[in-house]
From TrEMBL:
Residues 45-185 form the Serine aminopeptidase S33 domain. This is BioH protein, putative. InterPro entries: AB_hydrolase_fold (IPR029058), Hydrolase_4 (IPR022742).
Length: 240
């Protein structure tokens, strides 16, 4: 079974490293890495992702945080081979409910300039990471240009994929971080209200679950992915 990993706001895919070492041997991970192009919002990234989907084989998509709406948009198009979607600490609409959508235009690159990178990393981690992990995450964030992070935050503040969720026919599983300071529990409630059949698991940890709790996250991801294993009805090939 292939597992397509769609990264958080950094877009580098490098933050999946801890998770990869814990995945089951029957899972073949494919990590997406988004271009550093501030013009690429969710519509452009959807086109980018669709161009790289596996051909003639089943797969599961995991959307981490920023990429959750992208995973839903992809699933809504019913691509051949898709067996299910896993959302990790993600959302359908902006998780910052007190900020109106029009305020997205006020987001500036200087918010993500280097003096602010350390506080940003701490906010992502909450209180669940060791010093080595904090240093590594800051190093990854330092690779991402400030204008890219600002553009992706603007996209998050404007996004609303609730209509697309209605067109998703594959199963969805949600991984919820119990100490998440960025994505509140209400984000899962919104999903469940629109699609009651969505299943979920809770993991004790901060927003970056896949980085701070990789073993437990991998166990749940592998179990759910393998339970969905099989040839989808829209895949026109024979199973091995």
């Amino acid at each position: 079974m292939k597992l397509l990993l769609m990264p958080g706001m950094d877009g580098t895919g490098e933050l999946f490293t801890p998770l990869l070492s814990h995945l089951h041997n029957d899972i073949e991970a494919v990590v997406f890495r988004y271009p550093f192009d501030p013009r690429m919002g969710y519509p452009e990234l959807l086109t980018f992702v669709k161009q790289q989907l596996p051909e003639d084989e089943p797969y599961v998509v995991l959307g981490e945080s920023f990429s959750g709406p992208l995973a839903i948009q992809l699933a809504a198009t019913s691509p051949a081979g898709l067996c299910g979607v896993i959302l990790c600490a993600s959302f359908l609409t902006s998780p910052v409910r007190w900020v109106p959508r029009w305020a997205a235009s006020r987001v500036s690159s200087w918010w993500f300039s280097h003096p602010f990178r350390t506080p940003l990393a701490i906010m992502f981690l909450a209180n669940g990471a060791e010093a080595d992990s904090r240093h590594w995450i800051r190093t990854v964030l330092d690779q991402v240009p400030a204008d890219i992070l600002a553009a992706r935050l603007r996209a998050v503040l404007r996004v609303d994929v609730r209509p697309e969720l209605q067109n998703v026919s594959v199963p969805i599983h949600y991984l919820q971080a119990t100490q998440d300071r960025l994505v509140p529990a209400s984000c899962l409630s919104i999903i469940q209200k629109l699609m009651p059949k969505v299943t979920f698991s809770q993991i004790a940890g901060p927003h970056l679950l896949l980085q701070t709790q990789p073993a437990e996250a991998a166990r749940l991801i592998c179990a759910k992915s393998l339970s969905w294993q099989g040839t989808p009805t829209n895949l026109q090939t024979h199973a091995d």
